[in-house]
Design goal:
The protein is of the alpha+beta class. It has helices at residues 5-20, 45-55, 99-118, 125-133, 179-183, 226-231, 270-286, 351-363, 380-394, 405-410, 415-432, 441-445, 453-456, 460-466, 470-480, 485-489, 502-510, 516-539, 546-559, 566-580, 585-593, 610-618, 625-649, and strands at 28-33, 58-63, 121-124, 144-152, 156-166, 213-217, 220-224, 239-247, 257-265, 288-295, 303-310, 322-328.
């Protein structure tokens, strides 16, 4: 379609003005054209330039088959060599050029002059495609992470803004889609649905009001309700408080945690900027850093950070005052590993080996490389992922594309340097005789722990060199002793009844085959632990623990006659009734479950009749006369049996 370029610019600027009038926007106008259409009125050129300048629009012209994208600078005006796309030069046309070529050339020069006047850029399609092929990182909006004051004491603070400077880029999460919905031509994303079931009955779903979170404490699980979780939250206020200054050499860069933040003086406050700059200059001069307590938002976890000063320099670095924030680890964040020592006589290298190591380090050093040769390095995983997605969007059968050559080279050693030092690398390997360690078949079955590294890395014959007699015998005995710590830890030695699975713990203690005195001790621990957990489950607020308590109580009642504990069980149930009270929800749950006293029909050692057991559970007024009659008949039968037994003695 043949369209006047200037008319198109006027329409686009008018739309931009209507959309952004009175609002803060970053305005950008992109023109993609071959500049082949004739311009009707060139008098609008000056007004277009004024509109672009007044509206602060960034102009970008992408030309199709452009031959004129550069123009010589005027005399006395230097050319900015850092932005080659904005350098404009005049290329004369050949005499044989036709009218269409002449119009195209004039339009190209006009667009270049407009871009040069308003600070825009002109580039060809091929150039833009090359830039796109090289990959670009995602543009992130300038968003503050923290707005507040860098506080020194209780009375002084410097207003600062905090931004996130570095963060590990990750792949986007893949959304789950149902293939069946596409086949049926009905849209619908896959929704995640969780069901919680009872451990005793996997078909029984646990409703949300009966679910509770718990934290493990040793063998126990400590439950926390939602109200408890809110109560135990660590309450903090948003702040950045300086704790003190420290020599920069005392900061261990190897122990930094998480991402890097940057603090600058609050924009629009010149006094804050002056104070902030003076502080940074003083820290640079004294080589100091600030150790501060940082809470980025209300009720967030407090962090201890080191604020490292950054001042403008004469080089090509960032030309502003800032404080780089690096999080310091707490003691819980540190991993205390044990490794084999290297400062021993055995591991001391010879002079020849040390000389080869020095040469290898010097030959691989990049300190003499030019800074201009070091460019941006893109993440190959992310680059390959988005490249594959774009290919698959156009062709469903497209395979995974290979990495571009420029990205492959940035992740490898320079071929020229590698060829240059190949001989040195071979000499280095020959000097140390590096070989792959051969593991014994026996060692494959054993599990390794960090505490075993210092002893496992020293061979038996190496120990004999220092102490052949005593240490050699100890090493031999250690090799013959094949104990596994996991087997000792997983032996299942239960000493108390836990709240996570009290019935299983109770059975382990009851069924233990040990001496008579030890068995009585473990039996007492089992009974006491079961009583304690039943009473605790029933005494807590809410009914989420009632089912577990009833299971424990029912199992305890069933096992009491077998362990000769029937009388004590009846005493415990009587005590439990008085503690809970008859009108409580817990006792009503016991009544609904029908868990009552043990009777003489279940264990002859107790003198509780079935009628008395029912009266204990439901009250005197609910006792059925039939049950009383049955109880009396059973008592008569027992008396007759006793008479028959005494008759045999006569």
């Amino acid at each position: 379609m043949q369209v006047d370029i200037l008319d198109g610019l006027i329409v686009a600027l008018d739309l931009l003005f209507r959309r952004t009038d009175g609002k803060k926007y970053n305005k950008r106008l992109m023109v993609i054209t071959d500049a082949a259409a004739k311009i009707a009125d060139a008098g609008d050129l000056e007004s277009i330039v004024m509109m672009i300048q007044n509206m602060e629009v960034k102009l970008q012209v992408i030309g199709l088959d452009f031959q004129h994208t550069k123009m010589k600078a005027e005399e006395g005006k230097p050319v900015d060599e850092e932005i080659p796309e904005m350098i404009v030069k005049d290329e004369p046309m050949t005499a044989s050029a036709g009218d269409s070529e002449r119009i195209k050339a004039e339009n190209e020069k006009m667009l270049v002059s407009i871009a040069n006047e308003v600070g825009g850029e002109v580039c060809s399609v091929s150039k833009r495609m090359q830039l796109l092929a090289q990959g670009m990182k995602k543009t992130v909006a300038l968003t503050t992470k923290f707005r507040g004051s860098l506080e020194f004491g209780d009375t002084f603070g410097i207003p600062v803004y905090c931004y996130l400077k570095t963060k590990t880029a990750t792949l986007p999460t893949l959304s789950k889609e149902s293939q069946n919905s596409y086949e049926k031509e009905t849209g619908g994303k896959v929704k995640l649905d969780r069901r919680y079931t009872s451990p005793q009955n996997i078909d029984e779903e646990v409703p949300p009001d009966e679910q509770v979170k718990a934290y493990r404490y040793g063998a126990e699980k400590v439950p926390f309700a939602s109200a408890d979780m809110e109560f135990f939250k660590f309450r903090t206020e948003k702040s950045l408080k300086a704790l003190g200054f420290l020599d920069r050499a005392q900061i261990n860069h190897a122990k930094f945690v998480a991402n890097t933040d940057i603090f600058i003086a609050e924009p629009g406050k010149p006094h804050a900027a002056t104070c902030f700059a003076a502080l940074v200059d003083a820290m640079v001069e004294l080589d100091q850093v600030i150790v501060a307590r940082f809470v980025p938002r209300k009720n967030a976890a407090p962090k201890i950070v080191s604020l490292i000063p950054h001042a403008p320099s004469s080089g090509k670095g960032d030309n502003y005052y800032a404080l780089w924030a690096q999080q310091l680890p707490y003691e819980e964040d540190m991993r205390n590993y044990e490794f084999a020592p290297l400062k021993t006589r055995k591991y001391t290298p010879s002079e020849e080996q040390q000389l080869l190591a020095d040469k290898l380090v010097d030959s691989l050093s990049i300190r003499d490389d030019k800074a201009d040769e070091v460019g941006a390095c893109f993440n190959p995983v992310i680059r390959r992922f988005f490249h594959a997605v774009s290919k698959r969007a156009l062709d469903e059968s497209a395979g995974v594309p290979a990495l571009p050559a420029y990205m492959e080279s940035s992740l490898k050693m320079d071929p020229g340097r590698q060829e240059k030092i190949s001989t040195l690398i071979e000499s280095f390997g020959d000097a140390f005789q590096l070989k792959e360690a051969v593991k014994k078949a026996k060692d494959k079955k054993k599990k390794s722990f960090w505490s075993d590294v210092p002893t496992a890395s020293v061979k038996e014959e190496d120990i004999k060199e220092e102490n052949e007699d005593a240490v050699g015998r100890d090493a031999g005995s250690d090799l013959e002793l094949d104990l596994d710590l996991d087997d000792l830890l997983d032996s299942g030695d239960v000493t108390t009844v836990g709240s996570m699975n009290p019935i299983a713990d109770f059975e382990v203690l009851v069924e233990s085959f040990q001496s008579k005195a030890s068995r009585r001790e473990r039996l007492t621990a089992a009974v006491t632990g079961m009583e304690t957990h039943i009473e605790r489950f029933l005494s807590q607020n809410g009914s989420e623990f009632f089912p577990k308590a009833l299971q424990c109580l029912s199992h305890f009642r069933k096992r009491s006659p077998e362990i000769q504990y029937s009388a004590q069980f009846n005493e415990f149930l009587t005590k439990l009734k008085s503690v809970l009270s008859e009108n409580s929800d817990a006792w009503k749950a016991i009544k609904d479950a029908g868990i009552s006293l043990l009777t003489s029909s279940e264990d002859p050692s107790v003198d509780v009749s079935p009628a008395e057991a029912r009266a204990f559970l439901h009250g005197e007024e609910e006792v059925d006369l039939n049950l009383i009659a049955a109880s009396l008949s059973s008592q008569v039968e027992e008396m007759e049996k006793e008479d028959d037994m005494f008759a045999d003695f006569e």
